[in-house]
Amino acid sequence: MSIRNRIKARSGSVLVMTAFFGVVLLGVTALVTDIGYLYLEQSRLQTAVNAGWKAGFDRMMQTKNAGKHVLDEEEKELIRQHVRDVIKSNGYSDEEADAVEINFPNNQLLVKSNKQVGLFFAQVIDIKSGEVGATRSDAGDLGTIIPIGIPHGPTKDVSPTKYRCDLFDPGQEFTVGKEYIIKLGENPIPQPGDAPWGVIPKDINDTIDFGFATGSIYIIKYGSGAQTDAGQGLNGNFGALDLDSVNILTHAGGANMYGDWIKYGWDGTLKVGDLLLPETGNMAGDTRRGVEYRIEHNLLDIRIPVVPSFPNGQSDPVEVIGFLNFRLSMVGGSGNNATVTGTYMGSDYAVDHASGTLKISFGRIDPNNVATDTTQYLDNFKYGYSAPVEFGQMVLPENGNASEPTAEAVSYRLEDNAESPKNVIVPITEIPPEIVTNNPANATATTIYDLDATDNPGGAIASTTYPFGSSVRVTGFAEFELLAEENYTRVGENYDTGDQGDLGPVMPGQVRGKFIRYIVKPGTVD
Questions:
Q1: What is the three-class DSSP state of 37?
Q2: Three-state SS for 289?
Q3: 10 Å Cβ neighbour count for 26?
Q4: If both were cysteines, with which of 32, 163, 223, 385 could 339 make a disulfide (CB 3.0 to 4.6 Å apart)?
């Protein structure tokens, strides 16, 4: 081949390669340009959807705040039209606005739109259009959030006043399909009533225990010829008091009422400073029958007034200077003589000897962080909280068990209505360091159940705007399926460490659920 032909061949190859790279360059240019255009259109669509959602959400909340917690179809359609009008005001046609999806899952608001966008340069490589989408909801997966916070670990409701919680270590988690307590309950120790007896202090200077030792047995009603533990004569009295005389300082009652007071406890109210007349006579028969009744019916815990001394007969009233708790041991004596003994249980009223931590709160939260807004718990539980609860926000605990509204809300949820399903989202919470720093009273707090709600943040959710001292921080979200009581499986007192064993007895206000999944698992988000 001649040199001239070789040059022509090379020139042809260069032209072909140039054309090829030109097409590639044009394609890249088309791709970059049209991607930028798609991004612009997606941003524009998201702005319109956000504006429409906000307008619809405000309209929805106006309806709910007027007392209509579950929207009917007419109210939903009015909100849909309002959303469409706002989207159209952002530059979209009637046809485009009508194509926007506007739904109300779990009684919340979802606005979603997909749009085909025509392309320019990409048509060179036969790509004529691209799809952009935008979605906005008030809580997304968190649409069924309820006003309860839990620690990240299994909670056990071990007694009327105490709980246990084994917080998970890193890497541990709730087990799918397993039953957990998501709200503590309470079974208050019933007031036993004041016994119609009076005990005399062993140490008048001890204003708490009056010289009595917890766990020791003492005479709490004396027999014939007895003296008090302090060696004081009883002057014809045997430790009995006429409790009704707190109202009228005359002898009114007698042995028949005295026996009922032992059996059932006095139904009145005594306080320190009240004056009572002694009840004369041994009244052995009524004493014996009353104590035996209480022992038979396991009504052993009683509260006994403390009096400085007994006068001669009924000459003068005695003053109540305190109260002590006793657990009946036995009634002794025979004939016209009866002596009652009991174990001193302490001066605190509610005696609970279970091993655990005292329940200060029960897991209820007020998601809007307005301390005075305590009336929304039932509605927020039944229908779901209508605004987002954010990861990392501080949440105000709400005091009290609220067993009746809790039971009503759980019963409603278990109907599994489309707008109020039995699956709920529960915030997972922790005690952050600033709580201990700002409130030394919470220095030993480890869970939400240790906090007395004293914060009043007025809606603030961040520690930069309010110095929280008794709140919790949201560290995650978990989905549970609420369980009816007949479906509880971990009932009993066979406790074990960690996530094993029973969860304790069932108590009023307690809520249990089956773990479904994590929405946000603690430790996975910075």
A1: helix
A2: helix
A3: 13
A4: 223
Q: Scan for tokens 């991004």, then name that residue.
A: 39
- The alpha carbon dihedral of 209, 211, 217, 219 has a sign of negative
Q: What b/e string do you get for 228-258 counting C-beta neighbours within 10 Å, with b at 16 or more?
A: beeeeebeebbbbbbbbbbeeeeeebeeebb
Helix-then-strand count for the chain, H and E: 8, 20
- Predicted pLDDT of residue 229: 44
Place of tokens 């009353």: 290
d(CA 70, CA 395): 25
d(CA 182, CA 163): 12
Q: Which of 93, 72, 85, 140 is nearest to 112 (CA)?
A: 140
Alpha-carbon gap, residue 415 to 418, rounded angstroms: 9
- Whole-structure pTM value: 0.59
Sheet holding 217-221, edge to edge: 217-221, 339-346, 322-332, 301-306
Note the pLDDT of residue 498. 87
8 A C-beta contact, residue 133 and residue 48: no
What CA–CA distance (Å, rounded) separates 66 from 484?
31
Q: Residue 504's pLDDT is what? A: 94
Please give the pLDDT value at position 503.
Answer: 96
Residue among 227, 229, 233 at smallest CA distance from 216: 229
User: Please, are residues 402 and 377 in contact by the beta-carbon 8 Å criterion?
Assistant: yes
Sequence-ordered strand ranges (E) for 211-268: 217-221, 241-242
Determine the 3-state secondary structure of 232 from DSSP. Answer: coil
Q: Which residues of the chain have pLDDT under 50?
A: 7, 14, 139-142, 227-233, 248-255, 349-350
- 155: number of Cβ within 10 Å: 23
Task: Report yes or no: 173 and 280 within 8 Å, Cβ to Cβ.
Answer: no
Provide the angle, in degrees to the nearest 10, between the axes of the packed helices 255-264 and 284-296: 20
* Structure-block tokens of residue 244: 């009704």
**Residue 195, helix vs strand vs coil:** coil
Domain ranges of the chain: 3-137, 144-189+355-520, 217-346
pLDDT at 255: 45
C-beta contacts of 234-239 below 8 A and 24+ residues apart: 234/310, 235/310, 235/311, 235/312, 235/313, 236/280, 236/312, 236/313, 237/278, 237/279, 237/280, 237/310, 237/311, 237/313, 238/281, 238/282, 238/283, 239/197, 239/198, 239/199, 239/310
pLDDT-above-70 percentage for the chain: 79
What would the pLDDT profile of 254-304 be if each residue is shown by its tens digit? 445 888 888 887 777 778 888 888 888 788 888 888 889 888 887 888 888
Query: Nearest CA to 396 among 479, 459, 476?
Result: 459
